[in-house]
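Pasting as-is:
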Amino acid sequence: MAVSGHRRRPVVALYERIADAVHDGTYPPGSTLPSEPKLAAELGVSRPALREALLLLQEDGLLSVRRGVGRTVNDRPPRRGFEQIQPLEELIGAGAPLRVRALLRTVEEPTDFTTQHLLAPAGAELRFWESLLTGEGTAAALSHEWAAPDELLDQVHPEFARALRAAEPGTDTGGGRTDGGPDGGGARGDARAGTGSGTGPGAGGGGRAGAGTAGGRTTRHGTAVSMLSVLLGASRETALGAHSGITATLLGRRRGEQLRRPADTPAVLVTQVVRVGDTPVMAAKHMLPTGAPTLPVLQSH
């Protein structure tokens, strides 16, 4: 698998144009965006492309959709819950871990999502992993994972920084494509999520057999693993904390192609942030379409 060059994907560029308009006051908090046809004309883009970007902005908490009103700009990011840190491919595998197929290992500039959750400054370079989770030949989930900037990781979690550097050049994609196309199934860096409290060395996940980095390669029994698996494998002596949010959404065109489902397929979106102390070191978005394995939610009193 090759690490691609530093490029901003078209949907991300469009996402950022709209986010910039929100931040500079063109569309202030509480305001309603123009209709899709009008906004597409103003931006000079197609409606399908605009719809993809708006969907991402809605998922990331910048926009809300109200029936009869349209898309409105939120006053503040939504509150998040808590989770037990555990790889998603193990959590939803029901005793048989799902296979992780690496689609993309690259470097990206921050978006509003990563700026908010990773405290990344403008112009920073963030490692981005896209992965597809499959079981019995069926695409079960799509994961996007971002690591905090290397300079920050070198200070707060140098073991994770070293593990990431060692992992990327030799990642085994398990036969998957690395261009994020539909044949590869498509998913950005797989990760594991759950809900409930999650603190302590490795948060109960760092000591798993067969997980993490082995010989400088992100592998699990010969197949690729997620960024979270690398993080847990590098955190046996480091206490981690995490939180996540769960929302309902639609796949959209690109993710539908990657998961081989229609664009209007309902899905559950899990957002995940992992911290060392108060410092976020990794953020992720996991897409589970209708029909995906059950996601356990852990609760206690």
